[in-house]
Amino acid sequence: MQHSQKNLHLSGSFLLDIDRIMTGRFFITGFILLFFTCRPQAAYAGDVSGDDLYPVNKHEITFRGSVIPARYAFGYNYSEMNWGNNISGIYESSKYYSKEISTGTWTAAYAYNFSRILALQGSVSYEGGWNKFYNWETHGLAYVSSDNYITLMGTLRVTWLNRKLVRLYSSFGMGAAVEMVRKIESSTSPYWNPVTTNVRFAFQACPIGISVGKKLYGLAEAGIGHQYVGACLGIGYRF
Amino acid sequence: MTRNLRLSGFINAACLLALAICLSSCVMYNEEKEGKTVPAYDTFKMLYSDNVAHIFRAAELCSFFDNYQKIRTDRDASEALARGYFGSFESLYYEMAWIPGWGTINYISDGVYGINLDNMLLDSNYETEYMAVKREDGRFQLYQQADLHQEELSVSIIGKQLCIESFSMSYTDSYGVSVRMSVESGSGLKMPICSGGNAYYAPETGKIEVSLHGNGVEDDFWIEFEKGLLYLNQPGLTTTLPNMDEYGYMKY
Fold this sequence. Notes:
The structure holds 2 protein chains of 2 kinds. By secondary structure, chain A is α+β, with helices and mostly antiparallel strands.
């Protein structure tokens, strides 16, 4: 039997799920990064072979996803946590259980390389979540809420290890997250609340990131912020 | 050759994209598997934390300061007494003591003390200031300074045992729920007094009655404590629960 308050078991759920997910994900991630790092790479036309120097591709595009969604960094779901702070909220929330789906955070970015070391990046990210509340007695759907976030960010990136295949870098970005919240109040009413839009400050700090490949490359980053908390993976293309 | 290299590039891209999608895809958080919550228990924990738990800390300050007054001219013995209760102290004067984690107690007159609890865990809506008056039978009557919710509060300290002998409070919260908590005389809440800085959070024995009415909430229940267990009694139903042990045995 579960006795903890709403806010406590929300965080408990998060930890349990993420723990299970991360065990598998990190194992797979490590394996695949090892695969891409160690396998022989084909030489692309235009490469300078036999020399550590390589042509600087001024432009880069990347597409990446968060391994741990930025669910809590973004703050969606926080509104539900307040349920546990008053008596009528405790009794009301005990009637329901929730099933919440997060899309994770997906980011598309363009970067301009000033040199091998310094680059400036612009990105747009999306994260969505749908929280459905079911009645314990009937298991019927009672409430639905959804939150969507679009984040625009400018990022400064410093590459501090340059090799033909492997590059290590750090980055810091700031921008704005546009939050769109919508809630339906009751399963018996077709009325949807209008979308509420909020604009929030957003940042993303990445102390270490690795890219593996030449023109086409894979990337993995560790960091914290509004795009991801923990790690993200992606692909990129330099041209 | 060039075609093969391009093909290799596409395979790389496809692999990496598949990798990113697989590892970063949707996540579901399902509360159903955690089981149904017990709202009376969750509510009681909140009410106990806000309204009852800190009374024991006030009683410990009373017990210490009352004993300290008898030996205050002996500095070594006084400091040993303070450490015996609280492990450490910040200030210890004849007419005032400040124990971090507990609060400040002031001498007003013989057997009359003013208490200002450290409110790290309490916000300004809850009582942190008490006046303690020692009665002829050795028990303490505590009066709250701000007169927020409490109607009656009597505390006794017998040896190493604290007891809230009688307690009642009532208020209506900002959401329209009328709250009443009471400890009937004869069913007092008892816990061991703090020692060396270690303090208990939950009573070991005793009974608290709770009544909640309004804003869709209609519930009457009483909680009985036993060592390590807590019985939630509702009409026709008794539920055995852990005795708030997530707060456990605190060391300040």
